[in-house]
Amino acid sequence: MSDPRKAHEQEPTTHFGFQDVPESQKAEKVAEVFHSVAAKYDLMNDVLSGGLHRLWKRFTIELSGVRPGNRVLDIAGGTGDLTRKFSSIVGPTGEVVLADINDSMLKVGRDRLLDKGVAGNVQFVQADAEKLPFPDNHFDVVTIAFGLRNVTHKEDALRSMLRVLKPGGRLLVLEFSKPGNPLLAKVYDTYSFSFMPLAGKLITNDSESYRYLAESIRMHPDQETLKAMMVDAGFERVTYHNMTGGIVALHRGIKP
Amino acid sequence: MLITGLLAGVETGLNRVLSLDGTALPRLQALSGKVIAVRCQSPAVELFLLPSGDGLQLAAQWHAEADCTLNAPASSLARLALSRDKTAVLHRPEVSLDGDSAVLLQLAGILQDLELDWEYELSRWLGPVASTLLAGHLRVRVGLAAGAASSLRQDLADYLSEESRTLVGQREADARFAELDQLKLALDRLEARIERLSQRPKPDA
Fold it and tell me: What is the ipTM of this complex?
């Protein structure tokens, strides 16, 4: 007979912030974080980034090249910032799918978009980025903003995104990255590990989720590593743009 | 990133102004999905305008083909932004249009026809009574100022042309110009007549 403890010990581990956890537990732990922060997610984004997240997302939309009639997939779409803008651009002949693995975030996003009158060309789908439930060659543009670092198997997720993209389609990955300037990196570290958990405690009464946010950013691949991962997954013409000194980077790849 | 931030601020202000006109946003909705590229030659700057029912989106770059591209120097673009007659600026020789010019002309038409209901916006902040009082007061003051400016301009023109005789009056100048035009035409006729006489073949002796 097999010993379940041994089976558990043999399971590959992955990082959850600075901790190592069995791979099967990461999604559950990430889900707990987002269930906890969903209600005040937008407020916290504004507070922690000083409103800069709006400019990062705006730049993503500019680089997406989305046109009327396009089909767009917004993975880890959360509260729907990108979806709202894409919905306006693709128009009634296009379609935007807001996908998120976390049902709390999806509900907040859906309610927020419906309250703003965004409907008709938007669908809401609870989906895992590693196993996207869409046909091959289906989307013109796929975006994932501040979501890839929470995915357990990033390579599988990138391959899954490549599969659902049409040939010539574009993937845009907006994610925290590594600041280029050592001085900025030091200031950013102090900010991340001191102010972010404190703000989380004061606003959402949950400092642990924001400690995880800071830790998960440090564990996420830097600009060049993520670029190499996208190339390995099969994307071509992969480029990246650093924003705010490299605190955030936007990677863009084309499906051949 | 700085330009993106700047454009985001300008866009918010612009859309706020557009929302003061009851007809602008529904008319912009008809242009939804269109991309207008504005290329300034000196200095070299590119700007993309994307109209929609929410207003105008401004972008420093847009990775999709533009429906219409406007090429013009900064002075013409400034004139286009400030001038009341925008279509006249678009027909100037230094301004060129590529693609579907109807999109740009339609957008220029919408911006030209803007009638901003600033009293409504004021009433949202101050309430109906205060805004009516303030608007009435402002209207009287603006009317007085416009009247005074017009009167001053007329008095100054009269003084310079009639009293100090520093400048020639408008009507007098027009009459002189008309006489000069007549003289020029008469000279042209005379020149043509002399030319014809000089070319007439001489009769055989």
Answer: 0.72
The pTM score is: 0.74
Establish how many alpha carbons lie within 13 A of residue A101's alpha carbon, considering only the half-sphere containing its beta carbon. Answer: 21
Q: Per residue of chain B (205 residues), what is the pLDDT tens digit?
A: 788 888 989 999 989 888 888 888 888 888 888 899 999 887 788 899 999 888 889 998 888 888 999 988 888 888 887 777 777 787 888 888 888 888 888 888 888 888 777 777 788 888 888 888 888 888 899 999 999 999 999 999 888 888 888 888 888 889 999 999 999 999 999 999 999 999 877 766 5
A interface residues, B as partner, C-beta within 8 Å: 54-55, 58-59, 61-68, 88-89, 91, 243-244
> CA-CA distance, A164 to B13, in Å (whole number)?
39
Furthest-apart CA atoms within chain B: distance in Å: 102
Among residues A183, A177, A179, A210, the alpha carbon closest in space to that of A47 is found at A210
Q: For residue B184, give its domain range.
A: 118-199
Q: Look at residues A250, A222, A220 and name the one whose alpha carbon lies nearest to residue A238.
A: A250
Does the residue B205 lie in any domain? no
Q: Which of A58, A64, A67 sits opposite B4 (nearest CB)?
A: A58
Contact residues on chain A for B50, CB-CB shorter than 8 A:
89
Q: Is residue B204 part of a domain?
A: no
**Cis peptide leading into B43, omega within 30 of 0?**
yes
In a domain, A125, yes or no: yes
